[in-house]
């Protein structure tokens, strides 16, 4: 059996790892939101020009982008709530560890 089998990380490190993962996910979602917004602006400019088939295509693309933005906003809110909860739990865990030292 390896010597490191029973080694454990302190609780704060576990929270830190999860917090960093959630922050990366949140950053990725925000980046996607920015790209989606830019793409939506591009399609809205294109929808004002061209023939009716082009405008119809742009309209459909705009609807899909609006739906995507809604999904991303929900994901962002969920990740922000998760991050806040992790920060609270990490703070409580570090206070408990300080108390027992």
3D structure, described in words:
Keywords: Coiled coil. With 101 residues, the protein is mostly helical. Helices cover 84% and strands 0% of the residues. The chain is built from two helices and no strands. Helix 1 packs antiparallel against helix 2. It is rod-shaped. It starts with 10 loop residues before the first helix and ends with a helix.
Q: What would you say about this model in short?
A:
Helix content is 84%, strand content 0%.
Percentage of residues in strands: under 5%
Summing up helix and strand content along with how strands pair, one would put the structural category as mainly alpha
Report low-confidence residues grouped into runs of 5 or more. Answer: 1-8
Please tell me how large the radius of gyration is. 22 Å
Task: Return the string of H and E elements.
Answer: HH
* Sheet having the most strands: none
How far apart, in Å, are the first and last alpha carbons? 31 Å
**How many distinct folded domains?**
1
Helix run count: 2
- Number of separate strands: 0
> How confident overall, as mean pLDDT?
81
SSE topology sketch:
Layout: H1 11-46, H2 52-100
Helix pairs in contact: 1-2
Please name the defining characteristics of this protein.
rod-shaped, disordered N terminus, 101 residues, mainly alpha
């Amino acid at each position: 059996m390896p010597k490191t089998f029973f080694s454990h990380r302190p609780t704060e490190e576990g929270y830190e790892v999860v917090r960093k993962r959630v922050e990366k996910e949140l950053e990725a979602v925000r980046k996607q939101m920015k790209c989606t917004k830019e793409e939506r602006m591009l399609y809205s400019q294109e929808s004002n020009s061209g023939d009716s088939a082009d405008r119809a295509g742009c309209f459909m693309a705009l609807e899909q982008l609006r739906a995507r933005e809604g999904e991303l906003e929900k994901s962002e809110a969920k990740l922000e709530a998760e991050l806040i909860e992790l920060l609270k739990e990490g703070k409580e865990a570090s206070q408990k560890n300080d108390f027992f030292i």
